[in-house]
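Q: Okay, next protein. This is AAA family ATPase from Streptococcus pneumoniae. I've checked the sequence twice, so it should be correct. Can you predict the 3D structure?
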Amino acid sequence: MNYIKRPHYLDFLRRHRDRPIIKVVSGVRRAGKSVLFQLYKEELLATGVDEDQIISINFEDLSYYDLRHFQTLFAYIKEQLIGEKTYYNFLDEIQHVEKFELVADSLFILANVDLYLTGSNAYFMSSQLATNLTGRYVEIEVLPLSFEEYLSGQSLTENLNTTEIFNNYLFSAFPYLLQTSSYAEKIDYLRGIYNSILLNDIVTRLGNPNPTIIERIVRTLLSSTGSLISTNKIRNTLVSQNVSISHNTLENYLTTLTDSLLFYSVPRF
């Protein structure tokens, strides 16, 4: 499979290679974080790094389910560190690991470990990293494809004008969607990402939220994209739809939606 080269993100990893700092790659689900790691690992191999120097674990792979306990994970990695050569550790979707920050900190202090992490939950990642690893990590957020990146991976036809191409891009910014031209397939895939975020990030954090209220909030935010909006304005809209919700609960829901990277807020100041 041919992957789109994303030089901005690859350059970030290259710049910090072999430096005593943890490299954190965050971003919404399916934006291409795992593929970025794959491209970078191929570069490492091409520069002479041996395969046994690369330790790669994706915690959404059930094969590694037993490693989600922090002590088990650390012991698993530690036993593979033989000699003084540098080992490149890629821990993908690290938020699934209990007390992952303890593992990161323990690996960080080892002289022969170069550590790379990815995560899809801004709240979980930032709170744990900022609290326990301040000054020991650098972070970059991987976004869905920019329009330039989309064009670089698209076979364009001469019959499409710029507006039509851009309208197609709006439904195709996640890398996988370059493989299909079917509108129905694109919508199904995007719906799958939404449902995954809803289940794995939003519902998990909120406990047992009212799904109807969440859906109403999401629809209200989508209809207000690019417009000034406030908690009171959203609450008034919901009340007009006979949805009862307190100001504090709404604030909590909105924070969770942005922390899941489903939405981005743009403060006025």
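A: Here is a summary of the prediction. The longest strand covers residues 113-119. The radius of gyration is 21 Å.
Q: Noted. On to the next one.
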